[in-house]
Write a structure and sequence with these properties.
Number of helices: 17
CATH architecture of the largest domain: 4-Layer Sandwich
Shape: globular
CATH superfamily of the largest domain: Carbon-nitrogen hydrolase
CATH topology of the largest domain: Nitrilase/N-carbamoyl-D-aminoacid amidohydrolase
Number of strands: 14
Number of domains: 2
Largest sheet: 6 strands, mixed
């Protein structure tokens, strides 16, 4: 080949790579359709199968890494746009800075898919079946790593896209959200290989049958009741005050916010009444005694309890907590938020990022965290595992209060997300937590989505978003433990590690021969 032909070949290769990078970026963006509010669960299987196809054709690990990065950028730039709303619309961060922050965050989150593609190609696994297992293991391990590094950000973990309707959701009570991710990637890999065999005119049974087996098994698992009802259902009222985020912390609007929630509570005859996160935007010791006494008396007349969100100051006044307090027939109890939101509720590495406090106009952005060993609250005859806002993104932390808890309750203020897809995605995350634990999840939010979710992850009732309302319904307590409650993420991490070891065996053998 002469120099001119070589130059033309290089230009063609670069052009093909650019086209591939654009395509996988679009595939990443389309993957968001699998998540709420769209719930098109087959879409991620197809888009991941196409990504894997591009990875299989990658000439070098660097090329595969670039493809993974572009896929991730498409996924996160389309899927976490609500972060811009939080930073700019409500955090008052200047638009250029908010855009740069969002791009940097998406780039960071995309590094995990980048690493997966690089490793998968670097290993040069010849056997297609082993390659499929390795791809699934690497992806899941990268998702789990994303959930723990720098306090973690597991939003848009692929497993969430399969809740509640997909047969793959049947694996959630066994292996949790990462187990569902693994089966999704494995399905995508088998689909990718299936298509390759079709293109070559070869028999497809070797991949069609395992693909079918995964989905049929998932459907079968959905028919199993992992937990049992305990006692009679309890009446519940989930309050949604619809307080605009730009008014919530204004001193001249505090009384109005308190009146709204008091009015909703006093109209309820339910045994368990739940208000959202920091529904009363004051320190606990600043709230008039008569206000809380009125709520407590009303809860006692209902033979039940009310949960009220407030800020709790330490005895020395040097620390404060995002806390839910209970009042009513049971002794007063409280739950302090454990997993705080970086840059929203605390500033990590203050010497480096302390300037963020001056840029963001977020009240109380330096909370202290409660303990992970907090126990369920005894409320209205139930044992309620409370979690606050962002905490329900971390399944292994939720199960720390199980199997003792009979109900789960998530209180949140998703007004920070505005009218984006963020609140719906958060609802889907709660659906996963209900499915993993075999428990009802009660969601009381400021602006929505306020909902009652059953033990199978199905939304039974839902309040209209951005309305001032109370969602009244029944919640059934459950007892028992799913395999995920018993073992947490250890099962899926062990399985992923085993699959990865199988993928590495050929490389080990090759290295031994070389030595």
């Amino acid at each position: 080949m002469n120099r001119k032909d070589s130059r033309i070949g290089n230009q063609s290769a670069k052009s093909n790579l650019r086209s591939s990078l654009i395509i996988v970026f679009v595939l990443g963006a389309f993957t968001v359709l699998g998540f709420a509010p769209f719930y098109l669960f087959p879409i991620p299987v197809i888009t991941l199968a196409l990504l894997l196809h591009f990875w299989r054709k990658s000439a070098t690990p660097l090329q595969a890494a670039l493809l993974g990065f572009c896929f991730g950028m498409g996924l996160f730039s389309a899927g976490v746009t609500w972060i811009y709303v939080s930073l700019h619309d409500f955090g008052a961060m200047p638009m250029p800075i908010a855009v740069v922050v969002l791009i940097v965050l998406c780039a960071y989150l995309s590094l995990f898919a980048t690493l997966t593609g690089w490793l998968l190609t670097k290993l040069r696994i010849a056997a297609p079946a082993v390659w499929s297992l390795t791809a699934a293991a690497l992806w899941v391990l990268s998702e789990w790593l994303r959930s723990v590094l720098f306090t973690g950000f597991p939003w848009l973990t692929l497993g969430y896209s399969q809740v509640p309707a997909s047969p793959l959701a049947g694996f959630a009570p066994l292996l949790g959200v990462y187990g569902v991710s693994l089966l999704l990637i494995l399905s995508a890999a088998f689909l990718c290989l299936f298509v390759e065999l079709v293109e070559k005119g070869m028999r497809t049974r070797r991949y069609a049958l395992p693909l079918l087996a995964i989905w049929v098994t998932g459907f079968g698992l959905q028919q199993i009741s992992w937990t049992e009802p305990q006692g009679e259902p309890v009446t519940v009222s989930l309050l949604q005050g619809n307080i605009s985020q730009d008014l919530k912390w204004r001193p001249d609007h505090v009384v109005n916010s308190m009146d709204i929630y008091a009015g909703l509570a006093l109209e309820s005859s339910s045994r368990l009444i739940i208000t959202p996160e920091i529904s009363v935007p004051l320190f606990r010791n600043e709230v008039p005694w008569g206000y809380l006494a009125q709520l407590a008396d009303h809860a006692k007349r209902n033979d039940g309890d009310i949960l009220v969100g407030m800020v709790e100051a330490s005895a020395a006044g040097k620390e404060y907590y995002n806390t839910m307090f209970s009042f009513g027939t049971a002794p007063d109890q409280s739950y302090r938020k454990f997993h705080l939101v970086p840059f929203g509720e605390f500033i990590p590495l203050k010497p480096v990022f302390g300037w963020v406090i001056d840029v963001l106009q977020i009240p109380l952005s330096d909370f202290s965290r409660g303990g992970l060993d907090q126990r369920p609250m005894n409320l209205a005859g139930q044992r309620v595992a409370v979690n606050i806002c962002y905490e329900d993104v971390f399944g292994e932390e939720i199960i720390s209060q199980l199997p003792q808890a009979t109900l789960l309750a998530n209180v949140s203020n998703d007004a920070w997300f505005g009218r984006s897809i963020g609140p719906r995605q958060h609802l889907q995350i709660s659906q996963m937590r209900a499915l993993e634990t075999g428990r009802y999840m009660l969601r009381a939010t400021n602006t929505g989505v306020t909902a009652i979710i059953d033990q199978r992850g199905i939304v039974l009732q839902e309040a209209e978003i951005f309305t001032t309302t109370a969602l009244h319904g029944l919640a059934q307590g459950y007892t028992g433990a799913t395999p995920y409650v018993r073992f947490g993420n250890s099962l899926i991490l062990g399985l992923a590690g085993l699959l990865l070891l199988i993928g590495l065996l050929p490389a080990f053998r090759s290295a031994r021969k070389t030595l």
